[in-house]
Amino acid sequence: MNVFLAQLLNGLDKGGAYALIALGLTLVFGTLGVVNFAHGALFMLGCFCAVTFRYLITLETVTIDPEKLSPWGSPVEVRTPLVQNWFGDFGAVLVDYSVPISILLAIPAMLIIGIAMERGLIKHFYKRSHAEQILVTFGLAIVLQEIVRSFFGANPVPQPIPSDLRGAADIGVWFGMAAHTLTYPWWRLIYLLFSAVVIGGVFAFLQFTTFGMVVRAGMADRETVGLMGIDIDRRFTIVFGLAAVVAGVAGVMYTPLLAPNYHLGMDFLVLSFVVVVVGGMGSLPGAVAAGFLLGILQSFASMTEVKSLIPGIDQVIIYLVAVVILLVRPRGLMGRRGIMEN
Amino acid sequence: MFSLSRKDLAALAVFAAVVLTMPIWLAPFGAAYPGLMQKFAIYAIFAIGFNILFGLTGYLSFGHAAFLGVGSYTTVWSFKLLSMDIGPAMLFAIIVSGVFALLIGYFSLRRTGIYFSILTLAFAQMSYSLAYSVLTPITNGETGLLLARDDPRHLDALFGAQATAAGLPQPTLFGMSVTGYTGFYLCAVILIIAFYLSQKIFASPFGMALRGIKSNQTRMNYTGFNTRPYMLAAFVISGMFAGLAGALLSITDPLAGAERMKWTESGNVVLMTILGGVGTLFGPVIGAWLIKYFENIFSAINTNMLNGLFSFLPDGVQTFVVTVLSKFVGEGWHLTLGLMFVLIVVFLPGGLVEGFHRLMVRLKRQKATPDGVTSVQPAE
Predict the structure, then answer these.
(1) B377 pLDDT band (50/70/90 cuts)?
(2) Domain count of chain B?
(3) For the segment A212-270, what is each residue's pLDDT rounded down to a tens digit?
(4) Domain limits at B143?
């Protein structure tokens, strides 16, 4: 039972990342009708927002302290981050919490990147075929990842978890179990909550604001909304920016769990497309549900018991589910009848 | 049955001449060595095969590298178990990759558009992950499948052939070694045959049916035309071409690794086809050559070479130009590739072949204008 629960929880945080990426992907597909193969690259750019922020905040001064000596006799170099010089203890906290704080950098940065991408390139592809959209965004993804590589190199750049949040939470105790029966790392728990909040925020934004109402109307019937004198294109551009932000912050918070490297986007892209398809093209709740579902399935498939039963299942489970869903129920779990059914 | 229209025959003759004289006309570009020219020929075969599917039917497969990988593995296994002769190796590679394509195609072709792309991608990724993990007894996992001196090679043993005294056995064609220029000419001849086959397919009623499917599948269905077998045939044929290309890769360099099945490799062949021109005969070949050429040349350029090249500029400008350009060469040549790709899709969706046609039309028009009305001024 505990093993079961532990795997369930393990799957949930990965599922959170899948759900966030797939949410953005679906949002873009539902509004603009564009199949965006560069969405994984946006996730990767989000990761590197965190890396950049940490790099900037840890710029440091090096002073040589003649009093202290290192074990082999030379004076010790004392490195202090500039922020710590400026703000004292608050600066130290800033450095420690660089990952969550870099969300503040990631939001405007990703918004600008997203809007620039849509205005600069993708808007010319609304009327072209899906194949051409796939191709141009695929090319764009290559360009983005190579730019990142030329700045940050090819090696993964690990990001630390804030020191207060390391270690694991004893979740079992909360549910009245004995101590140490069910533990779960704090950061994963935070990621899970974070993704839930972001997903809730996006849904609330679409459901309860006028802007969201217009966007939903545009998703249902773009032309009519346009005829009512609403500049739907401008709203959709903002939606694209929003999708980029969601992917970006998902990336920022994921960096302590998986050290980001430049081809991370491509690795996640294939998965998130599978998630979108399983959930149903154009269905937002479907994307979220499928994201968590596939994350959990993947985590169960990597249990040793399952692996010994069906060898190799952990490697292919996601694709296998995608194949079965596509063949049996092509509109996905929650897709609307008649939308992209063959 | 083997005849071609006069136009196609001329195209084939030109193509054969161009391919066979590669060592001569590639020399000024610094690419006239057999290793690279083999790659040119092999990837051209791969792209020609891909074009039969994507160009004629419009179905964008994102998993073609799987067939390349299967072809490679089969070839190496044939070398290990049967004979070092490349005949059976190629035959088996084509058959096995054909069967594999039949399986994947049977399922994938139930869907169209982006679903088809994702299905093929999913199947290819599955093959890739399995080749890395569970199928290690067959694929030798990360190390890749290699030849060994004490492989059984039953057919060779049957005919009493003995392994040479030293080193690993080399692939042979009727006892003739296929390294260096022999290897290149072997690939070149197969490329010409592949080109001829694609010409035949393009001109045949079968090819017409595939084009009909591309332009409007529903209409084809309504006219009482069962499109499924045609699609499946096209998929299998194109898978076989990929298998053949994989076989040739393993023949010129007898090893096979799972990274050949990775989806970036599938992306590469899409890129080649698009760059050259989808649905044209020459396009995929030109695309494959250009990409392989750039991969080789651009990734070899380094900062010193750039400095030498721009030494005529004033110092500050030189540093600037070299710093900017160095991002695009060497390790960063993928950036160039990506940019090229985006630009082609945006400005020239028909690829280089279409660009060439447009250029020709414009030139013709310019030639024609001096006789007729030079320019028409609209009335104000």
Answers:
(1) low
(2) 1
(3) 999 888 888 888 888 988 888 888 899 999 999 999 999 999 998 888 888 888 778 77
(4) 6-159+168-281
Contact A282, A32 (CB under 8 A): no
Q: Please tell me the distance from the alpha carbon of residue B190 to that of residue A52, in angstroms, as a whole number.
A: 51
- Average pLDDT of the residues in B53-78: 91
ipTM for the predicted complex: 0.79
B371 has pLDDT over 60: no
Please give the full DSSP string across B214-244, using - where no structure is assigned. Answer: HH-HHHHHHTT--HHHHHHHHHHHHHHHHHH
Q: How many CB atoms lie within 10 A of CB A25?
A: 29
Instruction: Answer whether residue B108 is part of any domain.
Output: yes
| Domain contains B292 | no
Residue B89 sits in a domain whose CATH number is: 1.10.3470
Residue in B325, B342, B348, B354 to test binding to A, most A beta-carbons within 10 Å: B342
Q: Measure in Å the smallest separation between the Cα of B369 and chain A Cα atoms.
A: 33
Would you call B115 and A319 a contact, using CB atoms and an 8 Å cutoff?
A: no
Q: Is residue B122 part of a domain?
A: yes
- Chain A residues with CB-CB distance to B335 below 8 A: 142-143, 146-147, 150
3-state helix, strand, coil in chain B (%, to 5): 70, 0, 25
- Rounded distance between C-alpha atoms, residue B327 and residue B329, angstroms: 6
